[in-house]
Each structure stands twice: as structure tokens, then as C-alpha cells.
Amino acid sequence: MRKQFAVIGLGRFGSSVCHELNEMNHEVLAIDNDEQKVDKLSKHATQAIVADGTDEKMLKNIGIRNFDHVIIAIGEDIQASILCTLILKEMNIKQVWVKAQNDYHHKVLDKIGADKIFHPEHDMGQRIAEFLTSEKVIDYIDLSEDFSIIEIIATKKVIGKTLAEMDVRAKYGCTILAIKHSKGVNVTPNADETIKEGDLLVVIGHKNDLKRFQRDGI
Ligand code: ATP
């Protein structure tokens, strides 16, 4: 389904969000107060305009109210980012997602009702550290502070075993959601499914349980 998004602030983060949404064939309104940034991005958005994200009148005039989803990617000007968030939440925009610069910024954004707050540099740093310290984990998604989904390589320890024999749920409190292999993905695999060389396991669980599983179970 084609959705409508507005992205305010076209730095590295904002522009890459625009690129991706545009590639996915969604409608994207891109806004920045720097004309050069807007020109650079115009090919990768449905509409790109030069405007100040803290100008309430302008935001109303361009019909920002019609957007269910606005991403604020204004970086260093924390004051502008906060004001823009406040204006959009007062306009009852359903989803206002904001890039935060630091923990104080995050706290304020949370208080004024930002629906999702990102720390791209921090999150990416954490992700890279996670990969560097685990040779088995291929990818992971944070579901909340406590829960994640990881994609992990099947090692010799489990190759040839069935899911029932691995007994991951009882031993580690984690659940194997899917097994990826060369021919495709087996979603919700049966207990008698045998793990083969080259398989990737998609596992959900509490982060502590996943760590135990990575260390001892695979
Ligand atoms: P990134 O890491 O994503 O490149 P950054 O954290 O370095 O970004 P900035 O470059 O400070 O952040 O800001 C991102 C973009 O937001 C810039 O292109 C800037 O012109 C734009 N911007 C800043 N203030 C406003 C504003 N009030 N209205 C619209 N755009 C703004």
C-alpha cells in the first residue's frame, strides 16, 4: 500500500530515509531550509521544498496535517527539532518520529510526545559492536530494550539435530521462528526439522537468553 511520509531535515540520515521510502514507491514530501540540500534530493522525493520546519504557518499551508507519518531529521539545531516536534504533535499528526542528538534531547522529545526517537549513530555503533563480538550472529533487530530477534549461523554443535533435540525453548527460553537455507525460508518450522550445514536460524527472545543461547547452545 502506498503511504504518505514527510521528512524534515535532509542531512545524511533524512536523505537516506527519503531515498529508501521513494525506492519503496511511497509518497515522500522532503523539506529542508537549505536550498542546496533540497535540490540535491529533489529526484528522490515526490516533492521537495525549501522551508523552515519550525514555521507553523508554513507547515499548515503545505498541508502537513494530511500526513500520518512525519520524520524529523534535524540534527544539530536541537531547539528547532523540539519546536518542530511540538508543533506537529499539537496538530495531531499520528506518528512523529524524531532523530535525537543526545540523552537530554531524547528526554524532552519523549515528554512532548514524539512517537519514536532514533539515535542513528549510537544504534549503528551498538550494532557494529554486536557483530564484532559475535562470529555467529549475522543480523539482529531490537524489538524493545529487553527483546530482540537474531539471525545466527548453525554450527557443528547443532548440525544434524532436530529442533526437538535442540530444545531451545526449555533450555534457553528462546524460540526459533524460522530456518533460512539455500532454497528459501522455512517459517514456523516443525519440531522434527533437522538443522543442516549452512542453515541460518532466526531466533526471538530476551537479550540475556539470546546471549546464553549464542554462548552455549549453538
Ligand atoms: P546527519 O547526521 O543526518 O547528516 P546532522 O545530525 O549533522 O545530520 P544537521 O546537518 O545539523 O544534522 O541537520 C540535518 C538537516 O536539517 C540539514 O540539512 C539542515 O539544513 C536541516 N535543518 C536544520 N534546521 C532546520 C529547520 N529549522 N527546518 C528545516 N530543516 C532544517
From TrEMBL:
Positions of the RCK N-terminal domain: 2-118
GO molecular function: monoatomic cation transmembrane transporter activity
Gene3D superfamilies reported in the protein's UniProt record: NAD(P)-binding Rossmann-like Domain, Regulator of K+ conductance, C-terminal domain
Entry-linked InterPro entries: NAD(P)-bd_dom_sf, RCK_C, RCK_C_sf, RCK_N, Trk_Ktr_HKT_K-transport
GO terms (BP aspect): potassium ion transport
Alphabetical list of SUPFAM superfamilies matching this protein: NAD(P)-binding Rossmann-fold domains (SSF51735), TrkA C-terminal domain-like (SSF116726)
Superkingdom: Bacteria
Domain called RCK C-terminal: residue spans: 135-218
This protein's name: Trk system potassium uptake protein TrkA
Source species: Texcoconibacillus texcoconensis
